[in-house]
Automatic annotation (TrEMBL), chain A:
Residues 26-170 form the CheW-like domain. One of its GO terms (biological process) is signal transduction. GO terms for cellular component: cytosol. Coiled coil: none annotated. InterPro entries: CheW, CheW-like_dom_sf, CheW-lke_dom. Pfam families: CheW. This is Purine-binding chemotaxis protein CheW.
TrEMBL record, chain B:
GO terms for biological process: chemotaxis. It comes from Zoogloea oleivorans. This is Chemotaxis protein CheA. It catalyses: ATP + protein L-histidine = ADP + protein N-phospho-L-histidine. Keywords: ATP-binding, Chemotaxis, Kinase, Nucleotide-binding, Phosphoprotein, Transferase, Two-component regulatory system. One of its GO terms (cellular component) is cytoplasm. Pfam families: CheW, H-kinase_dim, HATPase_c, Hpt.
Length: 191, 722
């Protein structure tokens, strides 16, 4: 085991060998591009990666909810990560993908799709190569970051998926968006 | 054994439900024999079944209850309100005991035992206990004839002829008789000495005596026979159960599980016959069978001839046999299916509907006549399968309603009110999963009505109303929904009080002007209770918001109507099913939406002259309408010709303006998931034949939010151009 993780981080090889290395701590990450920045999520949460297409928009929700897709008969919500991080929505290109992530929150399993600009590769990042998140400067909420992984001398932001895709938080945000309508709360106009 | 217990638990709960219903009935008609017998039968069945699966706790408690019921039935004691209440308490306790046996009781063993002890003491007042011991023990005076001081119909008849060798074997008949006394009272005994030879020929070592004994005892036949176990081979013994016991046996026979048993086995099973007696009977049946085949006696006839059972019992057992074989035939028509298998089936049917839609779409795009024809046949069949499989899950709501009889009765006793529960539309069918989830909210509403709604008889009389209040539970179908009404003729909601409370709690601004309906809607706000006192039943202000939340989880709504002094009506609307609906597909801004077909009244073209207004002239009536494009902020230009779908909801009509109509479809409802739980105006989603996800509109919410959006624009015009 130690021999393997100490081997030079030739990424292509590491990716190919991925299924062999089964460790209790998720040392393998899927990296992807979002607005020119490199992000990564642990592969254990990832169900599949599909091509972007046929997203049905949902009216009256915050812009970072792109809509829903039909994933082999199940309706799965799709989140625009760039917008969730406070930026603009991702431009859809030929390489745009939806990464389907399985979450467990409050004992309920929920699949959520996230839109990314391009999927790169599966990397193995040893724990020793992960730095704690910076208190500021990453331009996304600190609690969204699990750590900063070092890959080939560059930093990759490892995302805290449970926080980024927190069902509770997203649903309350969409409630605020819809309930400009509510007379009791009043106030927030639904544009 | 476990399976047997499962059946026992289920059946005893059914019996307990029956028992409860009958007890409530008995309260109203204390002299009704049929009801009384029904009650007795239910209690007896529970006891018998408990005995069979060796649930001693249930059995022994049921036994005491049964004793009291027996006395009731024999008119030894009268039906009183107190007794009825006690009996209901006992029913509850039996339920707890049964639940405990199943390991699902939510109380401690100590509590159960305490409760048992308390109820048993109370039952003791009515039980036969005291009286039995009070009757004089008459048998001690001697072995000669003892006059019976009772009618004897409660006595076992034991007839024993000791064999001549009994004394030689060291057994004294007197000992058996004394031992018999330990089981109960010997009411009457006759010594038969007719085989006694003249004194000269008499052998003092031989026994010539026979006895006819009337024994009052509550033990079973086997116990009596066991007394004579040592001399069983040496004597002729026949034990006839008491007449009252015969009825018990007959009932027990009727309540036996539906196994196919032989006649003898049935009798042994209920204890009317012991195994030894049966064996003997069968032996004597075998002998004549060899000799004179045509005149073979039926085992029943033999047993009667041998005086071991009464003819009535045999008749009952024979009837039971016939019933069993009949029931067998019926069983084939009724199958118990685990709910998850049904759910799986419904899911598969859902997928089938979607796949079928895809096929028929393909056929239409290919313009292949034969394929279109065969796919339309397929579609029709799929529709039938869908309806049939959804039918499997529907149940009538009446059963849920009937449970409230007890609640109303108990609450009335507690509150000192008189309320009549009127139930209507009990035959209305709805999905079982909805029925299960609606019980609690309904209970809250009924309790509220009883506690806050209906006034005490004195107040009612002072107001010139019938002192007896009426609570109505009603159910019906309306536009693809189930409508359930809980209405009372009580005092109605106090508008000012609710408003004052709401202002006090900061739920509304003091200067706000609210319509009656808006004020009444405040009762669903968390923490708001208009009751001055917190009672056992309600008043803590936690009920109504929970009710509303539960209903919303079922895609249902609740509305309140109330008029001061005349009562309150709560109307619950629930979807018919949670799985598949008939929908009407519309397209707006290139997006597909589904309107539940049951809500659609008609479709019209939007008159060009009324392009900029959100209301139309529909055959002389004003039709307010919602433009989907505006409400949902859809991109693109409005087409030159638009269509209006006229929908009806809760008696209200409205138009929905869409780009174009795309026809009917079957929509398999796919929940949107937790992320969208707060979304308004969208009821769910479905997958079209093309694979595209279409949103299902929630018409009432859509109309509501459009109305509110308009109100806001009027109040704050600066938003209009935002």
């Amino acid at each position: 085991m130690s021999a393997l993780s100490a081997s030079p981080a030739n990424t292509a090889v590491a990716g190919a060998k991925a299924p062999v290395v089964v460790e209790s701590s998720p040392a393998q990450y899927l990296t992807f591009l979002l607005g020119g920045e490199m992000f990564a999520v642990g592969i254990l949460n990832i169900k599949e990666i599909i091509e972007y297409g046929a997203v049905t928009e949902i009216p009256m929700v915050p812009p970072f909810i792109r809509g829903v897709i039909n994933l082999r008969g199940a309706v799965v919500p799709v989140i625009d990560l760039a917008s969730r991080f406070g930026g603009k929505r991702s431009e859809i290109s030929r390489r745009t993908c939806i990464v389907i992530i399985e979450l467990t929150e409050n004992d309920e399993r929920q699949d959520i799709g996230v839109v990314v600009d391009a999927v790169s590769e599966v990397l193995e990042i040893p724990v020793s190569e992960i730095e704690p998140p910076p208190s500021f400067g990453a331009r996304i909420r600190a609690d969204f970051i699990k750590g900063m992984g070092k890959v080939n001398g560059k930093f990759v932001i490892l995302l805290e998926v449970d926080k980024v895709l927190s069902v509770d938080e997203i649903s309350s945000l969409s409630r605020i968006a819809t309930e400009g309508v509510d007379t009791v709360t009043g106030g927030t106009p639904a544009a | 054994m476990d399976e047997l217990k499962q059946v026992f638990l289920q059946e005893s709960n059914e019996q307990l439900d029956a028992l409860e219903t009958l007890l409530l009935e008995l309260e109203n008609r204390p002299d009704d024999e049929t009801t009384l017998n029904g009650i007795f039968r239910a209690a007896h069945t529970i006891k018998g079944a408990a005995g069979m699966v060796e649930c001693a706790a249930v059995e022994s408690f049921a036994h005491v209850v049964e004793n009291v019921l027996d006395r009731l039935r024999n008119h030894e004691i009268a039906v009183t309100t107190k007794l009825a209440a006690l009996m209901l308490g006992c029913t509850d306790h039996l339920r707890v005991l049964v639940a405990n046996e199943a390991g699902v009781a939510q109380v401690t063993i100590e509590w159960i035992e305490g409760q048992s002890a308390r109820l048993l003491t109370e039952l003791g007042e009515y039980g036969p206990g005291g009286q039995v011991f009070a009757t004089p023990k008459a048998s001690e005076s001697g072995v000669e004839r003892i006059p019976s001081n009772r009618s004897g119909h409660n006595c076992w008849h034991i007839s024993v002829r000791f064999g001549p060798d009994v004394l030689r074997q060291g057994m004294d008949p007197e000992n058996f008789l004394r031992f018999l006394e330990t089981l109960g009272n010997i009411q009457h005994m006759e010594t038969l000495a007719d085989v006694m030879p003249p004194a000269a020929e008499m052998d003092p070592e031989l026994c010539y005596l026979g006895f006819e004994i009337s024994l009052e005892s509550s033990v079973d036949k086997q116990a009596i026979e066991d007394i004579f176990a040592f001399v069983r081979d040496e004597c002729r013994l026949s034990i006839l159960p008491p007449n009252s016991k015969v009825a018990d046996y007959i009932e027990l026979i009727e309540s036996l599980p539906e196994d196919s048993l032989r006649l003898g086995e049935i009798l042994v099973r209920v204890g009317a016959l012991t195994a030894d007696e049966l064996a003997e009977g069968l032996r004597s049946q075998a002998v004549p069978a060899g000799a004179e085949p045509p005149e073979t006696l039926q085992i029943g006839e033999i047993l009667v001839a041998q005086q071991v059972v009464q003819p009535e019992l045999v008749a009952a057992a024979v009837a039971k046999q016939a019933q069993v074989s009949e029931k067998k035939a019926q069983d084939a028509k009724l199958i118990r299916v685990p709910a998850d298998k049904l759910d799986h089936l419904i899911n598969l049917v859902g997928e089938l509907v979607i796949a079928g839609a895809a096929t028929s779409l393909l056929a239409h795009t290919r313009r292949d006549g034969e394929l279109i024809e065969s796919s339309s046949l397929l579609t029709r069949l799929v529709e039938e399968i869908r309806d049939a499989s959804l039918q499997l899950r529907t149940v009538q709501i009446g059963e849920t309603f009937n449970r409230f009889h007890r609640l109303v009765r108990d609450a009335c006793k507690d509150l000192g009110k008189e309320v009549e529960l009127v139930i209507g539309g009990g035959e209305t069918e709805l999905d079982k999963s909805i029925v299960e989830k609606i019980g609690d909210p309904l209970m809250h509403l009924v309790r509220n009505s009883l506690d806050h709604g209906i006034e005490s008889p004195a107040v009612r009389e002072a107001a010139g109303k019938d002192p007896r209040g009426t609570l109505t539970l009603n159910a019906c179908h309306d536009a693809g929904n189930i409508v359930i009404e809980v209405a009372d003729d009580g005092a109605g909601l106090n508008r000012d009080k609710i408003l004052a409370k709401a202002i006090e709690r900061g739920l509304v601004e003091p200067e706000a002007h609210l319509s009656d309906r808006e004020v009444f809607d405040l009762i669903f706000a968390p923490g708001l209770s208009t009751a001055d006192q917190v009672t056992n039943l309600s008043g803590r202000g936690v009920g109504m918001d929970v009710v509303r939340r539960n209903l919303q989880a079922l895609r249902g709504t609740i509305t309140v109507d109330s008029s001061a002094g005349h009562g309150t009506r709560l109307t619950l609307r629930l979807p018919l099913t949670l799985a598949i609906i008939d929908g009407f597909l519309v397209v707006s801004g290139n997006r597909s939406y589904v309107i539940p077909l049951d809500a659609v009244v008609e479709c019209i073209e939007r008159p060009a002259s009324e392009h900029n207004r959100n209301y139309f002239n529909l055959r002389g009536q004003v039709l307010p309408s919602v433009c989907l494009r505006e409400s949902f902020g859809l991109p693109g230009e409005r087409p030159a010709r638009e269509s209006v779908v006229v929908v009806q909801y809760a008696g209200q009509r409205a138009g929905i303006v869409v780009d174009r109509l795309a026809g009917e479809l079957q929509a398999v409802i796919k929940p949107l998931g937790a992320i969208f739980r707060h979304i308004q105006g969208i009821g769910g989603s479905t997958i079209l034949g093309s694979g595209e996800v279409a949103l299902i509109l929630d018409i009432s919410a859509l109309i509501k939010i459009s109305g509110q959006a308009e109100q806001r624009l009027i109040a704050r015009p600066e938003l209009r151009n935002a």
